[in-house]
Amino acid sequence: MESLLSLAFDNLSSFDGSKIKKGLRQVEGLLAQICLAGQCSPKKQGENQQQPPRRMLADLSPDPAFREFFKLQEGFEWNVAQRLLTTLDWLVVRGGDGSYDMLIVNALDLIQGVLLLHPPSRVLFQRSVHMNLLLDLLEPINSPAIQCATIITLVVALLDMPQNIRVFEALDGLLTVTSLFKSRETGREVKFRLTEFLYFYLTPETPNIPKPDRTSVIAGPELIPGSPGKSKLLASGGRQRSKSESGNTLSVDAKKQHLDRYLPGVVDELLKDLDTYKPFGGILS
């Protein structure tokens, strides 16, 4: 797997758009291979005319390829999210004319996938440089496709990470989101995604607390034997980290007050919708 990642990283580090595109495809292929490992063969799938069942993150835990991937993500050298963020930054700086828009969207989609496969990588967004990168992509100068992909990426980056939400707030993320939401120039699809984000923001915060059940990969990277540095630290200091995260959460009422400054009169309606329709299926409540 190191050799596959090395090839992809070499292309992602290139100054050639075609090589970057190839690198993104290589990362996508690797993630797809991990997610689809153990699924029925194409022949059987064609015979049954059925899509393979969805697999949850915990379902991937026994798969050797996934465990190897997860273990590699614990080190800086092979962390895919970090490489994708570096590539994304390069594309944003040099893509002012729209020539790299599709590559930017592809990079954002892959960042979403990596953060879902390796939740500990979300800690990268406690750094203001990475959070600011997402906020910059929400500026009106960017295309609706980029804005929509960014909003989804932002939700994934903040999910179960109260510290990340506090960084988002400290960098005036609420002002950025609500200004785009109120703008008459913002299209319907982007406003729909922004509404979803506001629903998400107003849901109760749940810190990502490691579970004692060592059979579930969702409990954290300490489940992967032999993981270097960071995993061992998390394994030994899980309780302290959990207390810190719990102390950094805000109540729904506190977040409502923050949001009311930018969207007066709207937040109560959003909370009513959350209570009545449960747009996230109750998963986040």
From TrEMBL:
Pfam families: CDC14. InterPro entries: Cell_div_Cdc14 (IPR012535). Residues 220-251 are annotated as: Disordered. This is Cell division control protein 14. The lineage of its organism: Eukaryota, Fungi, Dikarya, Ascomycota, Pezizomycotina.
